[in-house]
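Revision sheet: structure tokens.
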Amino acid sequence: MPPFEVLGHRIVWSAVLTVVLALAAGKGRDIARVFADPKRLLGLAASALSISINWVCFIWAVGNGHALDSSLGYFLYPLCAVFLGALVLKERLTARQTAAVTLVCVGVAVLASGIGQVPWLVIAFPVTFGLYALLRKVVVVDALVGLTVETLLLTPAAMIYLVLRPDGGALFNDGPLLALLLVVTGPLTAIPLVLFAYGARRLKLSTLGLLQYLNPTIQMAIAVLSFGETFTATHALTFAFIWAGLLLYSLPMRRDVAR
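Predicted:
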């Protein structure tokens, strides 16, 4: 399937699910208030654009044998989050946390040098998701309400694209199994993003960024174990640096231990 067709279904079914959940939770008025607030609406429009670009890049990468490239891009995202947190939100890292980030930087540098080039995906993923995380942190809105508004803003364009697909596209022409998988993209998209937005409002952006190394680690494992892409000694060395940095960053502060 074309990446934009998959993207269209992700948006539409996510919108259906989030609207149902939001209304069931009694958040209908909150959604209406966001649409009546130009400042918050503009911020969510920007975050919606950022995440939709991220989605279509990921869909294309997985469908065209570049799952390892996508994982590398997501490895770089936390560094982008740390940079944005320091630049925009004036967040500060302790010496130990700085050392942890340095280990992660070394790991990413090892992987990039081993590949011998920097694919465009490696730039697209951290920039788009980094901007999305930043926007969702600074726009004051409930996690579910924010995602509902984002998907509703994207839905008209997605619907127009899907309606213009020949004979209704894959949903009506490629069998019930694929149709079911397309519908399932709704909860598989919406639930993680609601949880992400919930955490983004409560964690430092730099902490949120480093926790995101779980995502590309899983992606890399799937690329190798399921898709048959090659895992080299360079990848192994990269993992060693990244997880060492993550472990160092995650250790509790002394004052926390004392409590």
